[in-house]
Amino acid sequence: MATSTNPHDALTALGAALEARQVAFGDIPRTTWDRLISRTHSPTPFSRWTFHRAWWDAYGDTAHEQYLVCVPAQSPEQIDWSAVRAIVPLMHRHEVEPDDAASRTSVRPHEATGTQVPGEAKGIFFGASYHADYASVLADPADLPAAAVATAHALASPPDPTHGTTPWDVVDLRRLRPTDPAMDALQAALTAQPGWRVVREHEDVCPVVTSLSGDWDEFLATLDKKARHEIRRKIRRAEAVGSLTIEIESPTTAAVDAFIALHRMRFGEDGLFPNNPGGERSRRFVHRLAELERNESGGGQLHVALVRCGTRLIFAALAFDDGATVFLYNAGMDPSAAEASPGISGTAMYFQNRLAAGRRRFDYLRGNERYKYEWGAVDEPIARLLVTRP
User: Fold this and answer.
1) How much of the chain, in percent, has pLDDT values that exceed 90?
2) Which of 96, 104, 239, 346 has the most CB within a 10 Å radius?
3) Distances (CA, A) of 267 to 242, 279, 334, 349
4) Would you state the pLDDT for residue 9?
């Protein structure tokens, strides 16, 4: 018998394999979450249970949960969590909520890029993606095509009446890496839905620094001559003020408060922690994430790097370290310590420390700020899938 090569027929067959059930985030057992993230292609800290839990604890009043779990088709109504094959972390809200302007933070002001969507549109997004730099589906890559089809079928169904009867206007899936197999699987499944229009577009860049070895001088040799000279000159100038030291600390309350204090010194009301509801939410989120991460087995992935010049704290960075890649979440510095060049000397101390610890990849996350490229960063794109329908 001939085998069909029609892509639509193939997707139809996949649609018979899994079905998606909508669940509350809090109902997903931690063991199920961890089992699936361990099988996910190149997972990031933003797909960790701790990040999602902290986000909902801090920002839960800004969106509605719409998490999906994919189970074998025609499974019993009672979910067997050991049989769950994928978690699709979704939420819905208006593209612009009425209180967004009053509660937003502005360390990286939103730039309207790509296809514009009316602010009042009901959009479906990846869960926590307003504050995450990457997003994905939690699943073994082999299960992604079937999970994507199950997701498309769920999105084609009427809305959950517990969250109102208004259907979605757009599915706005951001923070997807083109190298993530979830991207192609979702695009194929969503495009196959009759009458849906799917646009795949560039969203932003994440500059990434890569080192071939752990030797500091070898790393510096890969940089632009001018940048290399400036880094060495500013380190010498800082060391003339006081010896440079670094501590990599667990994200204790005191360490996080030190980071927040230096971040406010550098950015003030234009940073993550302004004196408004958005700043308060940011504080709540960072402290909750730190609490969850330090209580993880092995201490979690989040840490705080504190750099001193003599006895003076001049630089603090909040970062994730998964053992291979460092994700530089944010930093703060003392602008009154200009003679020690805290931005340059602090970053240099951190890079040296992590290189010595075996790290070769430093991800600066979203945004093309100029300082990132002084360290040899190369852009890696993230993309957006935007779905509309009549």
Assistant:
1) 86
2) 346
3) 25, 12, 10, 21
4) 57
Which long-range contacts link 218-221 to residues 24+ away (Cβ below 8 Å)?
219/351, 219/355
CA-to-CA distance for 183 and 171, rounded, in angstroms?
Answer: 14
Query: What per-residue confidence (pLDDT) applies to 105?
Result: 66
pLDDT over 90 at 104, yes or no: no
Task: Delineate the domains of the chain, giving CATH numbers in brackets.
Answer: 7-205+382-388 (3.40.630), 212-359 (3.40.630.30)
Concatenating the DSSP letter of every residue in 110-173 gives: ----SS---TT-EEEEETTTTS-S----EE-GGGHHHHHHHHHHHHHSPPPGGG-SPPPSEEEE
93-124 b/e with 16+ CB inside 10 Å = b?
bbbeeeebeebbbeeeeeeeebeebeeeebbb
pLDDT higher than 60, residue 5: no
**Contact assessment for residue 170 and residue 207, using Cβ atoms and an 8 Å cutoff:** no
Helices and strands, number each (H, E), in the chain: 12, 15
Residue 2: the pLDDT is 45
d(CA 55, CA 49): 10
